[in-house]
Amino acid sequence: MKRLVIHDPTLRDGQHAVRHGLGLTALRRYAQAADAARIPVVEVGHGNGLGASSLQVGQAAVSDDEMLSTVREALGHSRLGVFMLPGWGTSADLRRAIGHGAEVFRIGVHATEVTLAERHLGFLRDAGVEAQCMLMMSHMASPEVLAEQAARAVGYGAQAVGIMDSAGHFLPADVSARIGAIVEAVGTVPVVFHGHDNLGMAVANSVAAADAGAGILDGCARGFGAGAGNTQLEVLVPVLERSGYTTGIDLYALLDAADLAERELMPAPPVTGSMSIVSGLAGVFSGFKHRVVELCAGTGVDPRDVFFELGRRQAIAGQEDLIVDVVAELSSRATDS
Amino acid sequence: MSPAAGLRGARPEVAEPVTVAVIGTGAIGRDLVSKIDRSPALECRLVAGRNPQSAGLRYAEGLGLATTAGGIEAVLAAPRPFDVVFDATSAASHREHWPLLEPLGTLVIDLTPSKVGQMVAPTVTGVSPATGRNVNLISCGGQAAVPIVHALAAEFPVTYFEVVSTVASEVAGRATRMNLDEYVATTGQAVTAFSGVTDVKAILNISPAVPPATFRTAVHARLAGADPVAVRAVAERVAERVRSFAPGYQVVACTAAGDLVTITLQVLAHSDVLPPYAGNLDIINSAAVMVAEQYATRPDRASRTGVIS
């Protein structure tokens, strides 16, 4: 049976759902529960990763240093993971995370912009920690382009490389084609899939990824994440086991961790609401939801139209300032007509 | 003289143009060469790159300029030092170039975020370096944001600044991509230096959108009792001044909610070689060329080179 590595970004990606407001007690308690379940990697941080606390996407309740030291202390078996977007965080943030004992480092870049990761992947390789490269908004690139970008990431020093379905836009056949092309391009280097559930496909897409050769799959407790949420971890793991894979994760302890997450991390588990469906269809980053709804309030602009317009403009994660323009434009169009 | 005085008159007729070399033939170097070529005060004597096949070198050849693939060594080997050397390479390269150029007495205008020289943002600092012979143009986001943060902090009790820029992937070359750490550090440092606000953050997005995204910078500020009308007036006043050298600079949005103010700026390129969305390159190069043109009129330059103007 093929062994898969499960990577759990509940304490990083879930931050998007609570505006980066997880406190230290919540971080510690979930990390302990995930560790007890033997989840191989527990990732923590601001929703956009190291150094990303900002007005642009939201300021974190606690600093990177506090998050890292708290979760580090709570983990005995699981490895500590972090995420960073070049241009948001810098090598100085990576260096501090290494100092805190982080072991798995992910550099995230837009699907076609892998050259942005060259420097930081090289830095991590030289520092002797595990460096992975994640291609985000991967529905915006073809399987061939993704394969070529992934091969370059490996050339820069990535020890694993993968794709994020940041908008929750994929159907299983899309994932099979992309993961298959990447596996072919990078050979024995593990390939990662990170799903979002906007169209209710995250678990099915993750299984498709495994069947196409992915070796690392991401999942969050109760799907904790922006919008419709991520792949639901405690569903993903038993489904993978039934599909003939092993994960080394203890089922009851995993279910306990998920129950704890629902009680202590989130006001309510994510649901596939109307905005999430629209953002999935439009191919827009799920994290834009709060800001879109907020900025439309009182303007008479339909937030669904804003998502489709943002999709037309190919807005990428980090460009939250574009929402203001789109709402203003749709608002003036409505007034003119 | 107030810093901005004389900005409009910065294209002086000079008896003898200053001699110029450009190192770096990426997108920024190419636009720089086109702007220098148009300036009556500047005479481009050498364009130096590393790759003999680069489009930037071919472009310079097409203008009839002397070119070399010999990089900094070719600049150093010139029989007579250039009056001005523009460095459009990378922050790491600039740190190597400066100790080699410094002994020549050349004015070095650095377009990388190296933090080596004296930072210049024309409407805030003027374009004549007060000290030293190394002028640093900060970054494209710095050029867009510094005039705004400087004016806001002077008029309002700002406690936090955040500067988020978006650049089209098409015009972010390899040096830019390798220099994101320096971009973030240098832009943040410039915001602090010219606003006095110590709690700052700089962010850069590279957007692959098609059609390409026009260069924009959002300045977020935390300030108590923000009056949107007063804030907008300040922003518009600043934009008017910046347009004296970067005509495509405009305020596209200005919002105030609670204690959070956001001013969004966009810069359209006015250039012979750049597409309109490449305002990031246009604003930094326009500022750099102004520094050189101002230098061309300085009496100390004339006495040093023996030219009576």
UniProtKB/TrEMBL annotation, chain A:
<keyword id="KW-0456">Lyase</keyword>
<feature type="site" description="Transition state stabilizer">
    <location>
        <position position="12"/>
    </location>
</feature>
<feature type="binding site">
    <location>
        <begin position="12"/>
        <end position="13"/>
    </location>
    <ligand>
        <name>substrate</name>
    </ligand>
</feature>
<protein>
    <recommendedName>
        <fullName>4-hydroxy-2-oxovalerate aldolase</fullName>
        <ecNumber>4.1.3.39</ecNumber>
    </recommendedName>
</protein>
<dbReference type="InterPro" id="IPR013785">
    <property type="entry name" value="Aldolase_TIM"/>
</dbReference>
<keyword id="KW-0464">Manganese</keyword>
<keyword id="KW-0479">Metal-binding</keyword>
<dbReference type="Pfam" id="PF07836">
    <property type="entry name" value="DmpG_comm"/>
</dbReference>
<dbReference type="InterPro" id="IPR000891">
    <property type="entry name" value="PYR_CT"/>
</dbReference>
<dbReference type="InterPro" id="IPR017629">
    <property type="entry name" value="4OH_2_O-val_aldolase"/>
</dbReference>
<dbReference type="InterPro" id="IPR012425">
    <property type="entry name" value="DmpG_comm"/>
</dbReference>
<dbReference type="InterPro" id="IPR035685">
    <property type="entry name" value="DRE_TIM_HOA"/>
</dbReference>
<dbReference type="GO" id="GO:0030145">
    <property type="term" value="F:manganese ion binding"/>
</dbReference>
<feature type="binding site">
    <location>
        <position position="194"/>
    </location>
    <ligand>
        <name>substrate</name>
    </ligand>
</feature>
<feature type="binding site">
    <location>
        <position position="196"/>
    </location>
    <ligand>
        <name>Mn(2+)</name>
    </ligand>
</feature>
<feature type="binding site">
    <location>
        <position position="194"/>
    </location>
    <ligand>
        <name>Mn(2+)</name>
    </ligand>
</feature>
<dbReference type="InterPro" id="IPR050073">
    <property type="entry name" value="2-IPM_HCS-like"/>
</dbReference>
<dbReference type="GO" id="GO:0003852">
    <property type="term" value="F:2-isopropylmalate synthase activity"/>
</dbReference>
<feature type="domain" description="Pyruvate carboxyltransferase">
    <location>
        <begin position="4"/>
        <end position="255"/>
    </location>
</feature>
<feature type="active site" description="Proton acceptor">
    <location>
        <position position="16"/>
    </location>
</feature>
<feature type="binding site">
    <location>
        <position position="166"/>
    </location>
    <ligand>
        <name>substrate</name>
    </ligand>
</feature>
<comment type="similarity">
    <text>Belongs to the 4-hydroxy-2-oxovalerate aldolase family.</text>
</comment>
TrEMBL record, chain B:
<feature type="active site" description="Acyl-thioester intermediate">
    <location>
        <position position="140"/>
    </location>
</feature>
<keyword id="KW-0058">Aromatic hydrocarbons catabolism</keyword>
<keyword id="KW-0520">NAD</keyword>
<dbReference type="InterPro" id="IPR036291">
    <property type="entry name" value="NAD(P)-bd_dom_sf"/>
</dbReference>
<feature type="binding site">
    <location>
        <position position="280"/>
    </location>
    <ligand>
        <name>NAD(+)</name>
    </ligand>
</feature>
<dbReference type="Pfam" id="PF01118">
    <property type="entry name" value="Semialdhyde_dh"/>
</dbReference>
<feature type="domain" description="Semialdehyde dehydrogenase NAD-binding">
    <location>
        <begin position="19"/>
        <end position="138"/>
    </location>
</feature>
<dbReference type="Pfam" id="PF09290">
    <property type="entry name" value="AcetDehyd-dimer"/>
</dbReference>
<feature type="binding site">
    <location>
        <begin position="25"/>
        <end position="28"/>
    </location>
    <ligand>
        <name>NAD(+)</name>
    </ligand>
</feature>
<dbReference type="GO" id="GO:0051287">
    <property type="term" value="F:NAD binding"/>
</dbReference>
<dbReference type="InterPro" id="IPR000534">
    <property type="entry name" value="Semialdehyde_DH_NAD-bd"/>
</dbReference>
<dbReference type="GO" id="GO:0008774">
    <property type="term" value="F:acetaldehyde dehydrogenase (acetylating) activity"/>
</dbReference>
<comment type="similarity">
    <text>Belongs to the acetaldehyde dehydrogenase family.</text>
</comment>
<protein>
    <recommendedName>
        <fullName>Acetaldehyde dehydrogenase</fullName>
        <ecNumber>1.2.1.10</ecNumber>
    </recommendedName>
</protein>
<dbReference type="InterPro" id="IPR003361">
    <property type="entry name" value="Acetaldehyde_dehydrogenase"/>
</dbReference>
<dbReference type="InterPro" id="IPR015426">
    <property type="entry name" value="Acetylaldehyde_DH_C"/>
</dbReference>
<keyword id="KW-0560">Oxidoreductase</keyword>
